[in-house]
Amino acid sequence: MTLPSPPMSLLAELTHRCPLSCPYCSNPLELERKAAELDTAGWRSVLEQAAELGVLQVHFSGGEPMARPDLVELVSLARKLNLYSNLITSGVLLDETKLEALDKAGLDHIQLSFQDVTEAGAERIGGLKGAQARKIEAARLIRASGIPMTLNFVVHRENVARIPEMFALARELGAGRVEIAHTQYYGWGLKNRDALLPSREQLQEATRAVEAERAKGGLSVDYVTPDYHADRPKPCMGGWGQRFVNVTPSGRVLPCHAAEIIPDVAFPNVQDRTLSDIWNCSPLFNMFRGTDWMPEPCRSCERKEQDWGGCRCQALALTGNAANTDPVCSLSPFHDRVEKAVAEASEKPELVYRRF
Ligand code: SF4
Ligand code: FES
Question: Whole-prediction pTM value?
């Protein structure tokens, strides 16, 4: 049997606990509680097995990974195992002492998220009073430490007009890189889609702002566009079971952060099987790997090894069957569902906040 190539990246969701409650969170609606979380030995074993399997990078994520007291120990282990480590954080739990410890442990990069540029906008989305000031302070500390930093802004209908101010803040805070990421509609984001999905005009304006910033130079800009306004899908996760492996707080191993919605399949856990056995042999990882599973129109499409048929979780959420072509693709027989969602996104519906 030919084994698949090893994953490049591990997304280690250390915890679902988080002081913020953003309504676009990509965590599942059924959040995992503290009592179910892997302990330190469990996470150490995940990192060791990941390095053994051939993983090159680990992204410590959550929830808020800084809520875990063993984060420094895990970063230090990642360094020993030659894993490039990235911390994905809201920054609200960061202070000088913790940052110094992370730096000493060998942390390679920090991705610091911002909900908005205005205090009111940030508090409306994150739901935490005073969060914006704490994030700005965190950015200053990170800048002073010399750890490479990317600022991440998730954009949506309410804040998308402020992209130029987001770039100005990134420059002011000395970030080398900024990511403007349109909300992805999974988990809580899908629940709040009608409130968050920008109009086509807003998207065009956002894209112009990104292009204008790129033309200025000096700041590296990543731009993640919203699927719903595209006519070809993204290669979600670089293809199912091809580049990413995701481990949830309780040790479930998934091909993407949203895969727990896939019905009629067992979700393997590192507490029961090795990471390598799960990656190479589990029915979940082999379900949509490669191109053999594809229906038409993907099966005979020249893009099938570029976008891998798009996103399985989106296909499931919008068509009821994860094995369908991603309906974002205009060749999909279900593409009208995406157009309908765009047409029906309303002006001011209530936000449903992420909560346990
Ligand atoms: Fe991609 Fe399938 Fe659409 Fe072709 S038909 S562009 S492979 S989603
Ligand atoms: Fe699961 Fe795209 S989010 S395959």
Answer: 0.95
Spatial CA neighbour of 160 closest among 123, 212, 196, 120:
196
Structure tokens at 353: 């906040």
What is the DSSP-derived secondary structure letter of residue 197?
Answer: P
Q: How many CA atoms lie within 13 A of 308 on its CB side?
A: 18
Query: Which pLDDT tens digit goes with each residue over 282-331?
Result: 999 999 999 999 999 999 999 999 999 999 999 999 999 999 999 999 99
Residue 138 Cα distances to 84, 89, 97, 112, 151, angstroms? 21, 10, 12, 8, 11
Shortest-distance Cα residue to atom 1 of ligand 2: 313
ipTM: 0.93
In the structure, which protein residues have their CB atom closer than 6 angstroms to any atom of ligand 1?
Answer: 232-233, 297-298, 301, 303-304, 307, 309-310, 325-326, 329, 331
CA of 239, nearest ligand number: 2
